[in-house]
User: What shape does this take?
Amino acid sequence: MDNHFNSPAQVTALYAAAGAEKAGKPASVLILLGILAGALIAMGSAATNTASYGIQGTWTARTVCGLLFPFGLGMVIATGAELFTGNCLITISLLDGRCSWRGMLRNWSIVYLSNFAGALLVAAGCAWFGQFDYSGGQLALFTMRMAAAKCAIPFQNGVVLGFFCNLLVCLGVVMAMSGRDTASRLMGAFLPVCYFVLCGFEHCVANMYYIAAGLMAKMVPAYAQLAAEAGLDLSALTVGGFLLGNLLPVTIGNVLGGAGLGGLLWYCYRPKS
Assistant: This one.
């Protein structure tokens, strides 16, 4: 009887070919699919904030977010969009001799910046066109508070939490590729992504939305007044805190987690000569 899933060795071989294709895609395609992926992850992030801002219990809020956020990655998988964190697995193709360092780094850089653009577009739409007006602006307060907290995490925490996050995200990609139909692929991606959200690990593309949305909300006079009245400390919520305090360490951790998993899979399941 035929198996209804791909084995780890088959998944590794499949990704070696897929990663090589990703590394060779035209820049215009990478940009468009990268913007799409950034926007889809941002929409998943916006959905989690909207669903959880009024929940008092941390466990309940994280559980709700963990159940909702994976659909962002599901949309990325279903549309074939280019997501930086998942593309850290291109190390499989590199080690397999299917692509060069230049091709891998070209993909990563174009996709990273395009993901950023997509996330910024969604953040701007939410902050400046009323999506944060829920409950008299309480969603805006929640968004700014979360963004400030993310900018204040210690550098080493960002690296380690980023490492754990992308280990799970890339496991989600691997488990999705083990499926041979759409339902199996989406279910494969669900649990690892749910776990990273539940645990509060750090994802650079999600943070491109979470922190940018907080920064943009801070620029809206009505939201800034609400923050002042609520006594929110937004001193850490700056562009420098965003780029250097959060994105830099989290991106480093994401790369180490995803690329490391790719290297491990290739070493264990590479074709034996």
Notes: The CA atoms of residues 40 and 75 lie 7 Å apart.
